[in-house]
Amino acid sequence: MKSSPSVLIVDPSSESREVLRVLLERRGATTLEAARPEEAIRLVRKCRPDVIVYDAESDQSPNGQPTNDLRQIAAGSDTPIVILGKIGPAQGIFSKSQVVAKPYHYGPLIRKINGLLPAA
Amino acid sequence: MPSLFVIQGRDQGTRFQLDGATITLGRGTTNAVQLHDTEVSREHAEFRRRGDVFVIRDLNSSNGTFVNGRSINEQELASGDQVQLGRTLLLFTGVTEGRAEDLADKINIVGRPEEGDASRIVHAMHQSEGSEILSLPDSESSSPWLARARSNLQIMYRTALAVSHTLDIDQLITRIMEMIFEWVDADRGCIMLKDLESGQLVPKVRRHRNELQAEERITISQTILDYVVDRNEGVLTSNARDDDRWDAAKSILKLGVREAICVPMQGRYDVVGVIYIDTFLTPQRMLQQGASNKFNQEHLKLMIAIAHQAALAIEDTNYYKQMVQAERLAAVGQTIASLSHHIKNILQGVRGGSYLIELGLKDHAKALSAGQIDVESAKKAITHMRKGWGIVEKNQERISALVMDMLTFSKEREPVPEPADLNDLVGDVVELVKTRANDEGVELTWLPAPTMPTLMFDPEAMHRAVLNIVTNAIDACHDQCDGRVEVTTQYSQAEQMARVAVVDNGSGIDPDDLEKIFAVFVSRKGGRGTGLGLPVSQKILEEHGGRIRVESKLGEGSRFTLEFPATLPQPGTSTTDHSLLDHAANEPATADSSHG
Question: What is the 3-state secondary structure (H, E, C) of chain A?
């Protein structure tokens, strides 16, 4: 039996993580949570999620290196990333289709994430 | 590092650091200095650094590159040069590092004579007496040339003083005109300044000798004005009919001016205006003085020198005003960007909470749709709605706090002191933040001072100040598993001081960041902070004649002490019953209401 698809939510706001968690779990996905990219990197290596939802404000570093590291690790394992908010050039190059501008609506966001998840 | 600061144009207020050997300027996105100006070419100019020399080169742009108003192909830049590309005017500032030598070891300032300098004051003179040094001594009254030279020097000295004492251009040129009338025997005079937008000369100051009719119009030949401005030369017309340069226009003939001096006000970059004076010599006066002229080349030279001084001062004032305006626009832009960011985050939270409520409502409707209640589904729906409502409420509190901080910070206000109890006030704050502390897993301890007399302070403002500090302390414990915040009050009768201390065992503050924590819009809390809380609290304490002391160790925690002079109410001062708990109970976003 195929296990349910998993989504890693990286967001410094616990309430934002909670909203996404509730919405994704309703659609049968399992969720992992991290407040910072450093923690997210550890979870990606350990749990290999199907999709990463990444709030650009999670990175508090002055040079954007943790985001860049996460992007490279995700690219290495072909894990799609959805970026929430504006990303700085130092944090790496992301295609426009990956970025969702803030403030976003949850309906289209969930549909976007669903579209990236493998069929359960 | 050299820089270009935009003082005019759409990017006004932006400073571009010129870091690198070659930097391109233009409209295109690939330029290090990107200008949002449609009259700037995509790749307009290039800035090159050759050692300590900075050169700007035009890259065959459509509209050209100008330095200090002159079109250039390539030009070496000096600090203070103005570079114009399209409609954008930039001010160049060169490197300063390396030039400023640390002279602390080479110059000694000593307190006592025995430490190396036994000098004593022999004679003192007030600064205003400086020009007296140029006045003519009685012994030298026999040398007219020397007397005139001294007099001219004195005039220039006083002009320099006059123009350096004001940043108001109207005041400055009025003073210049008054001084000209003191020194030159003119009948009428005016100063015209170039309008910054249109470039046209606009009369700004007019003056005439007292005995003349004030309402008499001064008529000035356009030919003279054009000559003076275009050629940047001062002119003296002692008898216009004898001067063939004006014959073509014949304008002087018509005016009948016997003598006039018109000089350009040449500044560092451009002619900013003209000064015009004239005089009428009637035949009777010519007979009386035995000469047909009153003005001579000495007057012309002096007027040119005065006009130059005035022009430099006007340029400085205009430049200063533009800088202030540009800085102001930059600050407004930063404020708007910062506030928009916080409001966007709050709005995102409200959307999240609302979406959960909406889902809960849909689920609840579904649970009831079959005519029978599906208890499990209804419970789940209510759980979603509660979660959503909690998030909406939290964000409502955040926007309310942001608005209150903005109001407090923006207003120049005097505190409204009234008799109040500091223990009650701090107790109320602790009550308010209890829920937040619980949510964050932070242990909150409240230790009121055993003795706290009724004091005079502004309770509403002080409530805000203490609330911001306690909230910050809880947030600082965000990543701690055993976060603790202790709030205490203290009253010192001996020092006549009241104190509120807020101690946390949170993340602490880097010593390098300690100086910055009271700066507006500087937040160490990422998206959760507005960067207004600490500056607002500091402002409130300062309004009360107090201050905030901070002690912190990175990784160990911080202690914030709010202290202000403890003023006891005068006998007979009525104590208003301003129970802050009552006040809080009326607010929808308090601990009481959130506890349900």
Answer: CCCCCEEEEECCCHHHHHHHHHHHHHCCCEEEEECCHHHHHHHHHHHCCCEEEEEHHHCCCCCCHHHHHHHHHHHHCCCCEEEECCCCHHHCCCCHHHEECCCCCHHHHHHHHHHHCCCC
Is the alpha carbon torsion for B221, B226, B228, B231 positive or negative? negative
Identify the CA nearest to B234 among candidates B206, B262, B212, B195: B262
The token pair that represents B185 in the structure block: 């025997």
Q: In chain B, which among 341-380 make CB contacts under 8 A with chain A?
A: 344-345, 347-349, 351-353, 355-356, 359
Q: What angle do CA B539, B541, B545 make, to 5 degrees?
A: 110
Q: How much is the ipTM here?
A: 0.86
Burial class (CB in 10 A: 0-12, 13-18, 19+), B533: buried
Are the beta carbons of B190 and B178 closer than 8 angstroms? no
Give the minimum alpha-carbon distance from B398 to chain A in angstroms, rounded to a whole number: 13
Min Cα–Cα distance to chain B from A30, Å: 18
With cut-offs at 50, 70 and 90, classify the pLDDT of residue B348. very high
Asked if the C-beta of B488 comes within 8 angstroms of chain A's C-beta atoms, the answer is: no
Q: How many CA atoms lie within 13 Å of B474's alpha carbon, on the beta-carbon side?
A: 23
| Structure confidence at residue B586 (pLDDT) | 35
Asked if A64 contacts A91 with a C-beta cutoff of 8 angstroms, the reply is: yes
C-alpha separations of A69 from A17, A41, A74 in Å: 22, 8, 9
Kindly determine whether residue B352 and residue A106, on different chains, have CB atoms separated by under 8 Å: yes
Q: Locate the domains of chain A by residue range.
A: 6-116
Q: Does A57 touch chain B (CB under 8 A)?
A: yes
pLDDT tens digits, residue range A78-114?
899 999 988 776 666 777 778 898 889 998 999 999 9
Tens-place pLDDT, residues A21-42 = 999 998 899 999 999 999 999 9
A12/B526 Cβ within 8 A: yes
Measured between CA atoms, the residue of chain B closest to residue A17 is: B352
When comparing pLDDT for B501 and B528, which is higher? B501
CB nearest B526 (choices: A60, A105, A106):
A60
The residue with tokens 């202000």 is: B564
Q: How far is CA B227 from the centre of its chain?
A: 40
> What pTM did the predictor assign?
0.61
CATH code of the domain made up of A6-116: 3.40.50.2300
